[in-house]
Amino acid sequence: MAQKSQTGGTEKKESSLLYCKGDFKEGALQWVTEPPQGRVLLVLSMDNTCPTSSFDMDLCAEKLQSLGVQVPADPWKRLIQEGVLRPEVRRYLFYSSRGFQIAMAVVFYISLWTNLYSTLQLCSLGHSWGAGVLVTLVALALTALVILVIDCHQRKLNVNTDVRLAAVNEIFIEHNIILGITNVLDGPHNVLQLWFVHFSPERCLQALSAHITHLQGTQAMAQQLLVIFSGCYVRLLVTGRLPRAGPGTHLGHSSVPCLCQFIQTTVLHTHHSWGR
Hints:
A hairpin with a 2-residue loop joins strand 4 and strand 5 (189-198). The two termini are 36 Å apart. This protein has 2 domains: 16-95 and 160-266, no CATH class; 98-154. It contains 9 helices and 5 strands, in the order βββααααααββααα. The model is unreliable at 1-33 and 271-276 (pLDDT under 50). 47% of the residues lie in helices and 13% in strands. By secondary structure, it is of the alpha+beta class.
């Protein structure tokens, strides 16, 4: 699959090229003068089922320059290549994709139902309609439990992807951008998507620094927490898996928490926890 990065609209001076999250297929870019917090700026896609495919880094660098982001390209391109495009990481992303997990859940259900029903037949209990209903209910319940466990796991920090993006986010956060990676199933293809999200860290950094100082931490610790968990935050943000925001969010009128609230809730556990 050819690498994709959507473009559209007419260029205007002193404007920012923004990505419209509602439709990333065609014509999904628009111009605005000031991007709000949490707005997706750019998405790069690649086919993870093709070993030779990769993100179009040169096109990405051009788009970032059109956004007014002047970042030396060689460091972050090398970090992305080494961090998330290594063969072992790409294999992990494929096997941890939601489409693959759903397929495994179906296989698990069928195998479990067959084994349970066969066991009841061996015990001379599998010839009544009630036995079939019981087996179906048990298999459905256990499969649903497996899916819930997988979903809770997906909400947590992923060492294989989110942490690998920390070095890249350390570069981009100084330019009010954070990155995250997701994978979706597009027919027979497993598509990796690299998301560039607008994020001004000042207010979150101040709030998190004050909070950590209260917990005997430092300002340096707050900066590292923002960098490390930004990839996980973007992944949950763009897939709609963040909880509703509590009071004091730095995303304006958004219904999702800002990055510092996310860290306080899921890492520091100083508010009501979610997705454990």
